[in-house]
Amino acid sequence: MYTQFHCVRENxxxxxNPNIANLKAGYLFPEIARxxxxxxxxxxxxxxxxxxxxGNTTEPLLPHICAxxxxxxxxxGTVEGYSGxxxxxxxxxxxxxxxxxxxxxxxADEVFISDGAKCDIGRLQTLFGxxxxxxxxxxxxxxxxxGSVLSGAAGAWAGDGYCGIVYLPCTAENGYxxxxxxxxxxxxxxxxxxxxxxxAVSTREQLSELVKTALSKGCIIIFDAAYSEFIRDPxxxxxxxxxxxxxxxxxxVQSFSKPAGFxxxxxxxxxxxxxxxxxxxxxxxxxxxxxxxxxFNGASNIAQAGALAALDSEGVQEIRRLTDFYLGNACLxxxxxxxxxxxxxxxxxxxxxxxxxxGRDSWDVFAEILExxxxxxxxxxxxxxxxxxxxRFSAFGRRADxxxxxxxxxxx
Length: 412
Ligand code: PLP
Known about the structure:
Strand content: 5-15%
Number of helices: 14
Order of helices and strands: HHHEHHEHEHEEHEEHEHHHEEHEEEH
Bound molecules: pyridoxal-5'-phosphate
Distance between the termini: 65 Å
Number of strands: 13
CATH architecture of the largest domain: 3-Layer(aba) Sandwich
């Protein structure tokens, strides 16, 4: 009976989504976790493995922000304070974000609260569809490429990258800012500053060049500013909207994950300006409102209460304290690498350090660092072809772990 049913099922089974089949490898971080587990199983030792690999936060929520979350949860338990679906987000929070991050430049209906930047990046792909040309910084945060593959925009794997994607190499030679003449007309450009993984932060002049390119070539920039709160140099822009003309060619995605420790709480936002239009003059903001209302039912009201606490004066100070802490870790790692004679960028205005191993393959260096120091890192190749000879060190870790890891590097 079962066999008979099974045969019928096999004949009629739905075909696999070819876009998913097109995804080249498993997502980078599960692969690193797999290699770590395999190493631990085959190399038993009393020396524990320390991770400087993933960008996951480790520090507890700070008290004022945490109290905001608790109060938000308690309010839901009262008749007066109860709230249900909030669609694009609490009006008060959207207004506060516009005030704190954009000098009130945007109206509340241009700020969309999300459950995180990564989720919005994934959903944003749907706006542009299968035929869109895509350009990404190389190396880049994997979801830009993988999301483009899932939406069908990336085309097939061609040995070193996807044929539908223009990779914009960011190398030591070009100061980790790409040659924008490589961007084709009418492309979607993914751009991240402070950058994950390189830790490089684009200057005002560089972002002006990016906006100028997007305007002249009819492109739209998806600007990922998830690490803006790590910027300490006041001359460096924290948002693409500090650049004239960006409202006509950019969407910004943002996150409370790293600055407020909300990686598990989940909250972010996207700014989709009303001035941003498609070729036919239709409003991107209008489509995003429609699309979000269709596939997303809003972020947690509790998380939004926490975000409001994070953006008042006490919350902003806590964000500064938390980001200072991680930047302190970054400084320790950078110094340890310098002591080893390894050259690196990042870590000053960002929580990532991009270490250079000329002529080496990053997965080999990853394996060597794991074996020699029992430290997990992230191989640069996982972020794109230009990351082949780099290793990313993450400053997200407990201080004692970072100090111990740095001692091990020094002792070598
Ligand atoms: N953007 C970049 C560049 C990131 O590195 C990350 C997380 O590591 C995210 C977005 C994800 O943000 P969220 O936690 O808000 O989804």
